[in-house]
Amino acid sequence: MRTQTRMPAQRTQPTRRDGPHGYDDLEPDLRRLAAMQPHDPGRGPLRDRLICEFLPLVRNLSRRYLTATHSAEDIQQAATLGLIKALDRYNPDAATGGPLGYLIPSVRGEILRYLRDHSWALRVPRDLKELGVGINRATITLTQRLGRAPRPSELAEELDTTIADVVEALGALESYRAASLDIPGPDGELTLGERLGADDPDLEAATMRDELRERIDALPPRERRILLLRFFGDRTQSEIAAEIGVSQMHVSRLLSRVVARLREELGG
């Protein structure tokens, strides 16, 4: 009896994704996805598979934009969002240069938008951020052309905008990086946080003091004298009574009445 030799099973080699045409084999699937209706039951699985197929591209692009202030996970998440958006709006008639010619600009654009919107220390309107980017580029160009730093009017002319917009954008650029309050000044000086002023607790009482002075000046002479001796002269009720020639009880009643009237006139 002859023994049949069993051939080993061949392993499927993974598709190489190198070079500008490494993803061309996925173009038919992209066309099928674009032709499907949103409620098509086969659209979801096909879309998920394409996302997984293009994830190596997302990782490679993300690594090119790593910064010291943004985590690799955040940048890759932004790139993945750009991939998903690009797949959902893929138009085979408008796409040129194969899948990568359409997907790479979309993913890169989403990464750049993320970096632009999350690199500022303060929240700045998007139009000012975009103008700030233009100012940085125009500054380099004009500096080389003029041999000096450009003036705001020259920047406005170069960018075809107003001087007021340039000045506002220059002010916004100062918010790109936050200064630490704990870094010491030069030559061991105090930190910025130690040099900043604090709230003055007497500011709120300043207006009240002026109004109180006017109210006290309007009091009858004897009541004004009793009030000043008690609260500004630090005299006891007994001492005031002896000086004015009335009883201590009378001084106490006068003080209570005057203080209550002032409190009511000053709004409690």
Automatic annotation (TrEMBL):
Residues 1-13 have a biased composition (Polar residues). The keyword DNA-binding applies. Keywords: DNA-binding, Sigma factor, Transcription, Transcription regulation. Gene3D superfamilies: 1.20.120.1810, Winged helix-like DNA-binding domain superfamily/Winged helix DNA-binding domain. It comes from the Bacteria. InterPro entries: RNA_pol_sigma-70_dom, RNA_pol_sigma70, RNA_pol_sigma70_r2, RNA_pol_sigma70_r3, RNA_pol_sigma70_r4, RNA_pol_sigma_r2, RNA_pol_sigma_r3/r4-like, WH-like_DNA-bd_sf. This is RNA polymerase sigma-B factor. Residues 53-120, 132-194, 216-264 form the RNA polymerase sigma-70 region domain. Residues 15-26 have a biased composition (Basic and acidic residues). It comes from Pseudonocardia parietis. Pfam families: Sigma70_r2, Sigma70_r3, Sigma70_r4. Residues 1-26 are annotated as: Disordered.
